[in-house]
Amino acid sequence: MDVNAAVAAVAAIAGVCTGVIAMLAFRWSERDQKRPTRTSLHTDPVLPPGVDTVLSVLRSSAVVLDEGDSVVKASSAAYALGLVRGGKLAVDPMLQMARDTRRDGEIRQVELDLPRRGTGRGEALAVSARVAPLGSRLVLLLVEDLTEARRIEAVRRDFVANVSHELKTPVGALSLLSEAVMDASDDPEAVERFAGRMQIEATRLTNLVQELIDLSRVQNDDPLEDAEPVRVDELVAEAMDRSRHQASHKQITMAAGGTAELQIWGNRGQLAAALGNLVENAVNYSPARTRVGIAARRVTAPGGDFIEVAVTDQGIGISDKDKERIFERFYRVDPARSRATGGTGLGLAIVKHVAASHGGEVTVWSSEGQGSTFTLRLPEAAAHRDRGTGHGGGLDDETTPPDATTATTTYEPIPAPEVLP
Q: pLDDT tens for residues 386-413?
């Protein structure tokens, strides 16, 4: 009995020891699993709380890099700009900035010109990059696209330079002519001649200032704030009246027609100025004893009907290389001829801005030696739309007879020219 009791006691002690050892081993294993390893620290970085939310609402392109220069977080804008490819930062200067910041903890900023990916052109992408440490192991890169801002700044500089040059010409001429008048005070004929020249330069200066004001107004104002239904035939009549004297002087016939009772929704003053500029250009750049036609028609489109007003001349035409730039401010196809006709180079720029601000466009068809057709395409006033069919007719290419002495205003029904591209 004593032997059996001793064996049982030994077995019980052994079982207790085994259980204690097993429990200690389990606890040791559990603690070892919870302990972070060097590998997990390096490959699974965690963004500080709230950083992910902040990066998602930033307008700038954002990239977060870890200790191994791998991308932990990148915004969609960063991928769109081509900053991140294959999980790596693809711009070497930015990558070097990130390494330097990780080393010394200093915030760095630089502006770079990057090639555009996939455009096939030499245009550069202007960006501003800022690098800052994010915690003890991560680096944050913010990239701002400055391309559009630089383009606007370049346009502003060119505009100021062009305005200065255009103002300098008539102002300088007025100064010289005034000195000539003073020197010729004893010669009435010379004074009269110089005074006439002064009036011409003063008129040119006034027109330039007025067109600068008009251009500024159409760029900054919302034309639809004072929008109203505007009758196309009234706009055409006003545009023809504006150029009647010059057309009469050159024996140019002006003819209007097309679909009747059309209406455009927009600012009457701006629409009249735009169409007036087109008709005035057609008269100024047409040879004597030719014809200028203004035709209006309705064009059906999926988003709503449009009104097309086409102004056709039999002038000198426009070359292909000039057609791409004629709507730029102060650009002239023939500078010498523009100065002779008093042109400022702003008329077509005003037409372009008026068309765009009214939800339309202006296009041009032209061939050197065969004339030009400018087409103003604007939304129709839906509340006053008349589905009646317009009358058809023809606008022939015959010139005005040599004995014509006045510009004629006719409203014979004529279709819009079919030479539009």
A: 444 333 333 333 333 333 333 333 333 3
Q: Are 48 and 134 in contact (CB under 8 A)?
A: yes
Residue 38 is encoded by which pair of tokens? 């060097």
- Protein fold of 51-145: Beta-Lactamase (3.30.450)
Residue 169: is it exposed, middle or buried by C-beta count within 10 angstroms (0-12/13-18/19+)?
A: middle
Identical fold between 51-145 and 149-220: no
CB 325 within 8 A of CB 352: no
Going through 154-281 in order, the beta strands assigned E by DSSP cover 228-231, 253-258, 263-266
**Exposure of 37 in the CB half-sphere (CA atoms within 13 A):** 5
| Token pair recorded at residue 236 | 């055409």
CB 97 within 8 A of CB 106: no
79 or 28, which is more confident? 79
Backbone angles phi, psi at 298, to 5 degrees: -95, 135
Taking the C-alpha atoms of residue 369 and residue 231, their distance in angstroms, rounded to an integer, is 33
CB 223 within 8 A of CB 230: no
Average pLDDT of span 20-49: 52
Look at the block and give the residue holding tokens 């009104």.
Answer: 307
User: Tokens 């008709």 correspond to what residue?
Assistant: 279
Strand spans (E) along 315-370: 361-367
Q: How far apart are CA 65 and CA 91, in angstroms?
A: 13
Name the 3-class secondary structure at 208. Answer: helix
Architecture of the CATH domain 223-410 = 2-Layer Sandwich (3.30)
pLDDT one-digit tens code per residue, 343-386: 567 888 889 988 988 889 999 999 888 899 999 999 998 644 44
Delimit the domains of the chain by residue range. 51-145, 149-220, 223-410
The verdict on domain 149-220 having CATH code 1.10.287.130 is yes
User: Which helix (DSSP H) or strand (DSSP E) does residue 131 occupy?
Assistant: strand 124-134
pLDDT band at 253 (very low <50, low <70, confident <90, very high): very high
- Angle among Cα 314, 347, 258 to the nearest 5 degrees reads 50
Render 108-127 in DSSP notation, one character per residue: EEEEEEEEPTT--S--EEEE
Going edge to edge, which strands form the sheet with 361-367? 361-367, 371-379, 306-312, 291-299, 253-258, 409-410
